[in-house]
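Hi all, posting the design record for the shared folder.

TITLE: backbone redesign
STEP: 1 of 1
STRUCTURE INPUT:
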């Protein structure tokens, strides 16, 4: 068994199996370098791109840690697939550059390069900083700062310096697309891989609205030349632990400071055009479809929705992981009821029985420590697309919607009890908690105003929260 102290550092020179050169053949720019993107898009590209033609330049989001860890390893990392009974490891080499997202010079250079064919994103739902109808959130100070800077900087040629430049995902993306237009570098595809319905059109509406505010000419070019691909993505990827670092070296013989742990299951469904080409991701199991909405809803409502339910209701019952919560008969019953309600609105042809059975098996994998506190972050945005649509559909069908109401009621109980739940909507949550009116109504209005207008839904949420609060420490 090799230990970290004696093992060689994982690099392209030490790992001779790599078929790519560092900082070479960048065809894909990724925004939001993190564990999920490496377990998902980077893995699919690594498997599909046998000749090393589709290198990824991956930029971090909120902090540079991932780039700082990966850059000394030339972008290589160990992917540990953790099943219920064993671990296996693969060294992934598709990332050829790992870059601090604040390095706008390199980002702009790559977006303006004709060889760049597509941009993938994994920045979480809240990371786009858009309102529910796909417009830039003008209540967000960072969005307004970016609009001010871009309005000045994009008035003509590119500025000589990007100092003080955009910090938001769409602000940076617009800067890069503006540079691509000026360079005459041709069309490309934008591929958002975050859990949002119609994520391609949603991101398109946001970037076009932002462009209209700062440079309508670039907006018109984006509307004509840039494709926005919709996706449904799935692979549970928990946070890496120090023990996982030791597991990586024992499995591969290389010291890796940035391994990723994931489950064996993976899924990727895409719909849209790739005007500058793409890797043959279907070789790795990706599916390309004409109509993605059924797959999006199945995944958002059944997997992500159940995760959110467990993140709040399970946490109130003292659980810390998905596996622990799903082993609780009460939580398991709640998930089954939630799935029954959601499945009534998913339509035919989605093999829901087998899909649900597979989800239970994945949830029960106790060796994947998917922590409820991690899932519970950004509750406002997540519940807006995971629980609210089911409640609205159930109410329209003349039913109570109680199975999905439970998820929002449990979230409200945690919020009211001042449990730490990081959320981009923190200011709105704080205002609701300080409201002289009904706190529950104001909290639910943040998720979906239509729910706040339904007295029966509000009563159901209050009932769940009231039952939980007396027993929650």
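Okay, here is what came back for every position:
SEQUENCE:
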């Amino acid at each position: 068994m090799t230990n970290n102290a004696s093992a060689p550092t994982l690099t392209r020179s030490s790992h001779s199996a790599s078929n790519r050169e560092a900082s070479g053949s960048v065809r894909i720019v990724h925004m939001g370098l993190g564990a999920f993107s490496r377990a998902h898009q980077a893995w699919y590209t690594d498997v599909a791109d046998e000749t090393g033609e589709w290198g990824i330049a991956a930029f971090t989001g909120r902090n540079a840690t991932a780039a700082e860890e990966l850059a000394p390893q030339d972008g290589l990392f160990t992917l540990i697939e953790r099943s219920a009974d064993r671990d296996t490891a693969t060294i992934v080499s598709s990332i050829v550059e790992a870059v601090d997202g604040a390095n706008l010079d390199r980002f702009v250079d790559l977006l303006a390069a004709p060889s760049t064919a597509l941009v993938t994103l994994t920045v979480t739902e809240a990371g786009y900083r858009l309102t529910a109808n796909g417009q830039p959130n003008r209540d967000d100070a960072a969005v307004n700062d970016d609009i001010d800077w871009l309005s000045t900087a994009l008035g003509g040629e590119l500025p000589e310096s990007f100092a003080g430049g955009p910090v938001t995902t769409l602000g940076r993306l617009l800067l890069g697309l503006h540079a691509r237009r000026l360079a005459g570098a041709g069309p490309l595809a934008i591929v958002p891989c975050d859990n949002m319905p119609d994520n391609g059109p949603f991101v398109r509406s946001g970037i076009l609205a932002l462009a209209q505010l700062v440079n309508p000419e670039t907006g018109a070019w984006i509307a004509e030349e840039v494709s926005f691909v919709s996706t449904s993505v799935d692979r549970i990827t928990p946070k890496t632990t120090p023990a996982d670092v030791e597991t990586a070296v024992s499995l591969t013989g290389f010291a890796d400071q940035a391994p990723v742990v994931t489950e064996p299951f993976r899924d990727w469904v895409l719909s849209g055009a790739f005007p500058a080409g793409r890797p043959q991701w279907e070789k790795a199991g990706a599916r390309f479809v004409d109509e993605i909405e059924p797959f999006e809803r199945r995944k958002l409502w059944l997997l992500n929705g159940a995760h959110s339910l467990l993140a709040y209701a399970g946490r109130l019952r003292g659980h810390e992981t998905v596996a622990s919560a799903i082993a609780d008969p009460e939580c398991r019953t709640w998930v089954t009821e939630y799935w029954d309600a959601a499945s009534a609105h998913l339509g035919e042809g989605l093999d829901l029985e087998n899909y649900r059975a597979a989800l239970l098996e994945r949830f029960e994998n106790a060796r994947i420590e998917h922590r409820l506190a991690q899932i519970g972050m950004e509750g406002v945005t997540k519940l807006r697309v995971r629980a609210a649509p089911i409640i609205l559909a159930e109410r329209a069908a003349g039913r109570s919607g109680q199975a999905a109401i439970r998820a929002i009621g449990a979230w409200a109980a945690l919020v009211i009890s001042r449990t730490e739940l990081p959320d981009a909507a923190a200011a709105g949550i704080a205002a609701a908690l300080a409201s002289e009116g009904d706190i529950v109504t104001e909290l639910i209005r943040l998720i979906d105003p239509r729910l706040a207008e339904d007295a029966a839904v509000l009563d159901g949420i209050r009932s769940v929260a009231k039952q939980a609060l007396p027993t929650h420490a």
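COMMENT: DSSP finds 20 helices and twelve strands in the chain.
Let me know if anyone wants the other runs.
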